[in-house]
Amino acid sequence: MNRTTRHSLVAFAAALLAPLASATQADPRVDLQCLAFFYGRDYFVLRSGRAQMIVQADRADLGPAFTYLLFDAENAKQSTRKDRALNFLPDEGFVSSALQVELGGHAFDALGQNTDTRWVIEDGIPAVEAVWWAGGVRVRERITAISCAQTFRRSVRLAGVHLSGEESVKVRLALPPGPCQREGDILLQSGHCACLALAVLCKSAAGGYPVEVAASRGKIEIGPITLAPKAEADINTLLARDELNL
Questions:
Q1: Which domains does the chain possess?
Q2: pTM of the model
């Protein structure tokens, strides 16, 4: 992606994401996360049909450094503010969109100072990539829009780059807090204007990784995954959106 195209996308995202000033937030970091401009902040815009995802990458320590906001691309009023995103909650923003990796009983997410983000091409399709560390495990996330299906693929690669022995690793993904239900390995949530679905797309060829869908907590947990030094494990997930009463 050339410099002109990248600057155009950033300008487009900034125009959509007007500053949000609210004194009602429980966590003051939410206000900083919702500013359109902040030191080291970058945006990546993906669209699949009517679903628009704006990925936010932060260099400052304001919470998870790699998150996203989900909008209805055909609803101009909704997409002018971050607090109108489908996955935004007033007391915690959009942190539920962050990937979490558990290693040695400790939960890790992307931190600004050790996360690198960029555009890449995967199978001829642009994808947003974030690379960060969970202890001795290198985590690579890639998010890709799937055609016009209102669906996004999030692929995760775990690499035991600095492990000294085998470790048990778990990966967690979530939907925003709210009533959810389970359909097999799919987590479903119906909001006031959309239905969101989170699913594990592929499992390992060697028997599959355990998948736990916790509807009461709005989370999907993949693992435990036994990761050896220098070995890799791949997980593919889908986030889909559908309209309700729009």
A1: 3-96 (no CATH), 101-107+131-243 (2.60.40.1170)
A2: 0.82
